[in-house]
Amino acid sequence: MTDLTALSLIEAATALRTGDLSSTELTKACLDRIHALDSRIHAFLALTPDLALKQSEAADQRLAQWRREGGDPLPLTVGIPIAVKDVLCLEDIPTTCGSRILEGFLPPYTATSVERLIRAGAVVLGKTNTDEFAMGSSTENSAFGPTHNPWDLSRVPGGSSGGSAAAVASHMCYAALGTDTGGSVRQPASFCNATGIKTSYGRVSRYGLIAYGSSLDTVGALARSSADLLPIFTAIAGHDPLDSTAMTDPVPKIILDDTDLRGLRIGVPREYFIEGMQPEVEAAIKEAVRVFESLGAKTRDISLPHTDLALPVYYIIAPAEASANLARYDAVRYGPRLESIKLSEQYFTTRGALFGQEVKRRIMLGTYALSSGYYDAYYGQAQKVRTLIKGDFQAAFEEVDLIACPVAPTTAFRIGEHGDDPLSMYLEDVFTLPANLAGVPGIAFPVGFDSNRLPIGMQLNAPHLGEEALFGAAHAYQGITSWHKEHPLL
Amino acid sequence: MALTVEEVRHIARLARLQLTTEEERLYTEQLSDILDYASRLGEVDTSDIPPTASVLQLHAPLRPDVVRPCTPRDRILRNAPSDQEGMFRVPPILDT
After folding, report:
1. b/e per residue, B44-59, with b = 16+ CB within 10 A?
2. pTM
3. What domains, with CATH codes, occur in chain A?
């Protein structure tokens, strides 16, 4: 029998419909693969085999009934084993955000995005590793140890959704939920040869997503292709009365057959080709642009003039929002407590001991940017420059339908490479931050390898709520290329 | 924009973070570097530019105001490091 974990999500869903395979078989195959590989990769922080097998049995019954009685088409996610980034709550399952300060926390409810996937029949295998509170670009900031890139175990998988990306790339699951505040779905997708969607701000409910930067946080997903990714997006998108920023606009029904790219206008921003960029990345992106031209797209050079300001804007606004959001960790309502004789001391000791270095650094930075005397110069000014960055995208989308650019300046770097230099790590996010500041969606997908056989990813951005065009363009590209089918030998 | 150790201690007090001496030294250096990098924002002329707090045109979606069940108390309290008689238990707040 062939290895079931090597199937694409669409192939697995097709086999479930015909009855050639059962969800229980797929689930057991994924759990077996996790047990065989995850001691080397560390994609998961917690496994939920009992829940998964219960859900897969229910999915098998649902499929059997559908085969017997017919009826409306079932969602493609029915019976498909997936993984969930450990910043999304799942009722009664430990949810840590990769932090000691939430060790032992059992959420009393499930995040809307996870709930919708479960209702759409998906099987949850477990919770994936993340940089602590999603703050990082490498998954090295997890309090529970780094995740290793399946393409080279000495390298990072990217971050912060590095566990989800590594799980997808190593075929431990067919898709995974991630979150993207500054590139945390797209950059790990790029580093691991996965396809990842960063959704428009407001497209997917943030209810049950443990907050980092609330004006930037988005729930997204990773899978092995655009076609595999779409059913996950379809399941999670749409308004939620429990999140007032989850937009009421209807979600279009997206169909991916023979997407025609003729006449599609793609802009390539000159500011995204910078000094110090890995030449192989630049070459692969330019080659991918030529592939889009061969598909009939019209590409042109464009300018997003305020791009170089996105990094300083992000690293003021996101820490400022984080410093407020993380004030809730007071050792009163959840998490471990360092006993003190006074409440005021308990805040200091518990937070000082149980937050990691990067989280403390960002809380400090955000507290400073919001503090009396500095607010206008830092936070206020960053919010104004954010308007300019958003305006760059609005102006560009007057002239083009999509924007094509690299995901990151380099391929996956070595674990420990950025050491004690946070600013050099922040520079890894230079091409992904602008989309979060502007609220627009992005898709990352494989477009080649460097000489070390490390994956290279391209990013497409669309106007707000323009996910349909992203799935279509990436699908058309994947129809005539095979980079996304390459997988690491493990 | 160089921060002093005293400023770092002040920020840590505001943020309710106990730092080690080594962390104070490290953050003084690293936060100075990051703020130095961010100081380029000050060079941008934003005199006529409104701030962006959210990319959405926010409106408050309304729903009928009906009584619904809420999360049972014991499911909230089970996560607390200490509780007593249905309440969160904390160390003294005031000096006695």
Report:
1. bebeebeebeebbeee
2. 0.97
3. 4-244+441-485 (3.90.1300.10)
